[in-house]
Input
Amino acid sequence: MDPNRLKGKNILITGAARGMGAANAEHFAEQGANVCIGDINLDGAQETAERINKAGNGKAIAVKLDVTSREDNAAAVKATVDEFGMINVGLFNAGLNKPRFFMDIDEDNWDLIMNVNTKAMWLGMQETARQMIAQGKQDYPYKLINVGSIASRKPLVDVTVYCTSKYGCLALTHCGAIGLAEHNITVNGYAPGVVVTPLWEQLDKDLVDIGFKQREGQAYEDIVNDALQIKRVSYPDDVKGTAAFLASPESDYMTGQMIHIDGGWCIQ
Ligand SMILES: NC(=O)c1ccc[n+]([C@@H]2O[C@H](COP(=O)([O-])OP(=O)(O)OC[C@H]3O[C@@H](n4cnc5c(N)ncnc54)[C@H](O)[C@@H]3O)[C@@H](O)[C@H]2O)c1
Output
């Protein structure tokens, strides 16, 4: 594999202050990409960017980005282009979860999750594609990468709204691939299972709070024992290779695909 396979690629990553977004940003830059770290947590975004710039391969900038705002998405795209000259790849990673049993879902829970996970993905894709179209066709495709989940294909009763939002990410991947093909923009995604990040650490606590699990740590154990073929949880390092593949020329002939990186959960 070319160790500099992302050289010349300028990539906007949302939600990259921490967790998988930060790991992907660092991995992209190790392979030569320039990255714009967009997050509602500007301090965290700046820390990720500083680590990348200190490491000294690809360059990084940080921007404050609330993904639910069209203006913020447009500004993050503009910041990427102002700094690096153009944008080649958008990775729509920002997301959150807040479990509720079906009859306990209220409008606040619905709106919070659907806005950040799904509506914001559409906004980010559209504003990034708008810039790509304005840049004109190249002899390689521009790429949009959507972060789905095991919950993009599996109904999980304790996280109904999260499932709805992530099924939506799958639909945006399929429809975007068809709708943007004429502009030489591909749309793919990846779908993690259980990844140890701040999101899952909070979810583990929340599942006890709503009474779905009796103690912290039980959700991890039950999923490993009952659902996974590979008998361990995963970490951001397990995901970053697939994200880099989707950003690289190696995936140029793919579009409309959502790759599961979930230890075999989705085949059950
Ligand atoms: N951790 C898992 O097990 C898991 C599994 C499947 C899918 N995912 C998905 O992977 C993605 C990354 O998750 P993670 O586990 O790294 O989470 P994380 O909580 O560690 O990181 C999420 C990042 O998104 C940012 N963010 C939240 N709301 C935002 C907003 N409105 N605007 C901009 N940024 C915002 C947060 O500040 C944070 O930096 C999410 O889309 C998540 O749904 C996670």
